[in-house]
Amino acid sequence: xxxxLSDLIYEFAQRTTxxxxxxxxxxxxxxxxxxxxxxxxxxxxxxxxxxxxxAVQEYLSYKTSTDIQEMYTSELPFPAVTICNINSFSHLVxxxxxxxxxxxxxxxxxxEFEMIAFNNFDNWWRxxxxxxxxxxxxxxxxxxxxxxxxxxxxWTLNETTLSHCTFRQKxxxxxxxxxxxxxxxxxxxxxxxxxxxxxxxxSGHGLVVxxxxxxxxxxxxxxxxxxxxxxxxxVHNHNDPSEVQxxxxxxxxxxxxxxxxxxxxxxxxxKPWGVCSEKTKTLLHHDHYSTAGCxxxxxxxxxxxxxxxxxxxxxxxxxxxxxDALNILNCSGSADAVFSTKFSLRTxxxxxxxxxVVYDSSTSYSTFPxxxxxxxxxxxxxxxxxKYRENHLMLDIFYDSLSYVRMKQxxxxxxxxxxxxxxxxxxxxxxxxxxxxxxxxxxxx
Length: 445
Hints:
By secondary structure, this protein is an alpha+beta fold. It has 2 domains: 2-62 and 413-444, no CATH class; 70-407, Sandwich (Acid-sensing ion channels like fold), CATH 2.60.470. It is built from 14 helices and 17 strands. Strands 1, 4, 5, 9, 12, 15, 16 and 17 form an 8-stranded mixed sheet that branches.
């Protein structure tokens, strides 16, 4: 049996395409040459093994490469633009609402301040709430809801506050804006759920609005409220809820803001090559998935789980009661503060989608209006130039180029390239190909 096996191996070595074996087993050669061939083939096997290991390790490192392309088109879809007055309520709201709104709206961007507010002013605020509820009871009202006051006494977009509106140099109006309740109060979104395009690049060819912020109606507390006057503007995807409180661009009165927008389409790799997930969770109160919408629902659901009610800004949570003022005082206010400090995208299981669009922006400012134009505007408004500038501002939002950026991640080492590398290394070091592998398979089987 051993003799026949030896003959089989010898015969295989003579005809295999792995040529080093025939040199080692060639009986007609001197032993010294066969030993040299054996050492050389062994060294080549070691080198091939080393480089094959490196190739596999490179693949298992799951590196990515990013391809960035400038895509040119004849027109670009105009994004949603959400505009909020920095003042959340009219000063006509009663004293309690002023205190309540200052507490809620000033702490949203700053969880640290929120915790301080709840710790240091809780007793004073409780007295204010209870006193206000006593007055409500005298009027036959047993509960106070912040969303009602927001819709009733928030900043209203009308012919007075929106004195000028053009899109693509054509007139637009308040009918082109959709009312939306955010943590900043009552806001307005342009082109919400609509398809509008900009087909000429440059200033004035996008959205241009003149706004009256009506400072005399500001109700912010001088110590605990927001000391600024103006609006915040957030440019975002139509399918994403606005995060104007976090990412909005501040525009003060007396200035014109020229906001250049840039569309970027991002195509990310799934795990383990990237951080995105091909399977995103289904949101209960949003038609499309986004990390902003997911985190927003997570926040509202956390408040609901702790207090049995929803925050005032979660109006899309149907069949769930809103937290009234006493509930905000006793439960939901502190629950919201806890969420701000302890929860994140990971704890809420909000994954990054693999394909989404973002809008970057850059802003420059100019005085608005100029002296001569301002005196003309002020005369028709029955004001002087100083008063007019205290209340009015201009927004000019536009694409400066009819192109967008596509950023696409891909595997740095694909399965095909790994197989090609392995085949090339085996061929280089040992002269082995798939044909040779088939010969070895035939030998043993």
